[in-house]
Amino acid sequence: MLRTTGFGFAAGCALAGAAWAVRGRSSAVFGPSVWRGKPGRKAIAITFDDGPSPSTPLFLDALAQHKTPATFFQVGANVLRHQDTVRSVLAAGHEIGNHSHSHFNFAMKAASLINDDFTRAQSAIAEVTGAPPTLMRAPYGVRWPGFREMQAKLGLLGVMWTVIGLDWKLPAAAIADRVLSRATDGGIICLHDGRGTRENPDVKPALEAVRLIIPALIAAGYHFESVSQLLCHKI
């Protein structure tokens, strides 16, 4: 009995460790990754995954209202579909990162598929914007063996988050409450201006939440930076 219990505990610990390696926001097991900037100053980054979509220009308008820079982790298939929107994101002064080409969950996927999919997205973004990204975010926050080699090849730093809005299932007020209650110095907020590779997804709750979150954080003394700006600051 003791042996069985001990084995079960060890197995449980191993599974927990594996789960953290794959999805833990502070994990860098499968490649260089960050989840926040340095604390000590009232700076924060807002990021958007899964775009561009037909709604992305509305997010740009909301950001422009408060002169808020953001980082958009874009899906290669969507980039090719909405090239003018990608250029608008860049022209507005925002940063673009690689969010894969097909938005797969890469758990259990071959390293060759991981490499090929992110390489396709890198090429698509570079073709449309004129420059390859330097940041990437794994779909669903899932990293896997093969990410380290892919990131080294493409020169990409992984970016996770300090708070994710759950904006695919919560109403706007709940999204905003969740983000605002977890806002911290050097924090990285994750929201969505798209839904995977869907052509015209409903992202209204996220958009409405952005209109609540930005002025509230500014009133609380925060200022917004791109992820690169947040990470480059030295205290």
Briefly summarize what is shown:
The chain is an alpha/beta fold and 235 residues long. It has helices at 2-23, 56-65, 76-81, 83-91, 111-129, 147-154, 172-181, 204-219, 227-232, and strands spanning 33-34, 43-49, 71-74, 95-98, 135-136, 157-159, 163-164, 187-192, 223-224.
Give a verbal description of the structure.
- The protein is of the alpha/beta class.
- The radius of gyration is 18 Å and the shape is globular.
- The chain has nine helices and nine strands.
What is the CATH class designation? Alpha Beta
Could you say which overall geometry the principal axes of the C-alpha atoms support? Answer: globular
User: So what's the oligomer here?
Assistant: single chain
Largest sheet: 6 strands, parallel
CATH architecture: Alpha-Beta Barrel
Radius of gyration, taken over Cα atoms and rounded to an integer in Å: 18 Å
Would you spell out the secondary-structure blueprint of this structure?
Elements: H1 2-23, E1 33-34, E2 43-49, H2 56-65, E3 71-74, H3 76-81, H4 83-91, E4 95-98, H5 111-129, E5 135-136, H6 147-154, E6 157-159, E7 163-164, H7 172-181, E8 187-192, H8 204-219, E9 223-224, H9 227-232
Parallel strand pairs: 1-6, 2-3, 2-8, 2-9, 3-4, 5-6, 7-8
Key phrases:
235 residues; alpha/beta; TIM Barrel; 6-stranded parallel sheet; 3-stranded parallel sheet; 14% strand
